[in-house]
Amino acid sequence: MGLMRWRPFEELVSLRRELDRLFDELFETRPARREEFHPLTDIKETENEFIVKMELPGVKPEDVEITLMGDTLTIKGEKKQEERTEKENFLRVERCYGAFQRSFTLGTPVKADEVKATYKDGVLEVRVPKAEEAKPKPIKIKVEK
């Protein structure tokens, strides 16, 4: 058995990669892996409604399903990969494909029968109106003399 040269910097680089991977999994600081499709979402709350915008480029509206159970909005679907032939020679494949499902708890009673969804330029917009009991109500102060 021969002597091996110790390379401390290679060990540090390896350790750093493992720690980066661990933190990425714990805190989801990097985009999803190439084989996963994780659509980016913005949720805005106004006085009367929640507005959910989800980026779904390349996803057909008929491949998306939206459900509301109580105050939890779920959006699921699939971004399908283009068919490839054996003659194609890809130099780089970075786009993500596959099934996805995102659920968001809104934390406020909503009007399930008045939810509206639109799809334009690869962005899905879902408007979820708040129930009347969830809207702020002004209270008059009575002054006593």
Protein traits:
Immunoglobulin-like; 4-stranded antiparallel beta sheet; alpha+beta; about 140 residues
What does this 3D model show about the protein?
The chain has one helix and seven strands. It has 145 residues and is of the alpha+beta class. The chain has a domain of 88 residues: Immunoglobulin-like (Sandwich), CATH 2.60.40. The strands form two sheets. Strands 1-2-7-6 form a four-stranded antiparallel sheet, with no helix packed on it. A three-stranded antiparallel sheet has the order 3-4-5, with no helix packed on it. A hairpin with a 3-residue loop joins strand 1 and strand 2. The longest helix has 20 residues. The radius of gyration is 24 Å and the shape is flat. The model has no long low-confidence stretch (mean pLDDT 84).
Structural class: alpha+beta
* SSE succession: HEEEEEEE
Q: Please state how the strands of the largest beta sheet are arranged side by side.
A: 1-2-7-6
Specify the biggest β-sheet.
4 strands, antiparallel
Q: What separation lies between the terminal Cα atoms? A: 99 Å
For the CA atoms, what is the radius of gyration? Answer: 24 Å
Q: Could you please say which CATH topology of the domain at 35-82 and 95-134 applies here?
A: Immunoglobulin-like
- Beta content: 25-35%
| CATH C-level class of the domain at 35-82 and 95-134 | Mainly Beta
Query: Helix share of residues?
Result: 10-25%
Give the CATH architecture of the domain at 35-82 and 95-134: Sandwich
Mean pLDDT: 84
* Helix segment tally: 1
Weakly predicted, low-confidence segments: none
Beta strand count = 7
- Overall form: flat
